[in-house]
Amino acid sequence: RRNSYEMCKETADWLRAxxxxxxxxxxxxxxxxxxxxxxxxxxxYIPGHxxxxxxxxxxxxxxxxCMQGRFHxxxxxxxxxxxxxxxxxxxxxxxxxxxxxxxxxxxxxxQVGDIMFIRDHxxxxxxxxxxxxxGPNDERFGVRFPxxxxxxEQDLLSLAMESVQELGFVSFTREGVYCQLAGPSYETIAExxxxxxxxxxxxxxxxxxxxxxxxxxxxxxxxxxxxxNKVMMSYNSQEKANHEEVLRxxxxxxxxxxxxxTCLLGKLGESTNPL
Length: 275
Ligand SMILES: O=P(O)(O)O[C@H]1O[C@H](CO)[C@@H](O)[C@H]1O
Ligand SMILES: Nc1nc2[nH]cnc2c(=O)[nH]1
Description:
alpha/beta; five-stranded mixed barrel; 33% helix; globular; binds 1-O-phosphono-alpha-D-ribofuranose; binds guanine; purine salvage; Pur_Nuc_Pase_Ino/Guo-sp; Purine nucleoside phosphorylase
């Protein structure tokens, strides 16, 4: 199995031989958000033989590692492969996972360019029986039946909200429920209406398997969705979802997101360094 303890350990050891940096925080950069990694100081780039690239460095004085890009299920990877980097990060000693993505806004009050902190998620995979933890459980990662009602940590969310206040980002910051579909096709209008009725605020094609596996091994998680488009709810709408627009909006908000994550890491450092 791709995300077995032995395979993850082998990759973690391989990485340790290439960098002396010991990050406590990992950031997964969503679509168009790879630039987050460029602001790290003392960078070490470690390209995998496939995407994604790992960038080790420091942000606001805190050691961290950014994953530029991710494995998507719609690309043909198994959920084991999609979540393999999470277990590698855990074995590297990472404790905090900041997971970002580009998502379509379902909540009618959301605007394009809003930053949504993920409060909770709806896993269409999970509901359909495709949980990344399916199969024999390895206790070295976590328990057989992990709790998910607390997957997105309240303390991290509070620190993130403090950062939002300090940076003056309140007007474009939201909280909500992220829902993941397999992709790669975007949603139909009827599907969007169903997802909205289910209580989802944003929709994408990533993140949840990563979060489930991260929560299983005890990582503290902050989820951030960038609302890159409003999904279609009406047959009269002339707009059409497209990836070019998703990337364009991500890039527009990338700087704000960089500032937010930088500020948050400073706060995390303060909260974990008992000076
Ligand atoms: O979730 P990330 O990888 O940020 O990207 C989102 O944007 C892409 C679609 O435009 C899909 O990959 C979807 O999941
Ligand atoms: N599924 C889905 N993923 C997205 N990623 C960015 N925008 C969207 C969207 O509208 N739908």
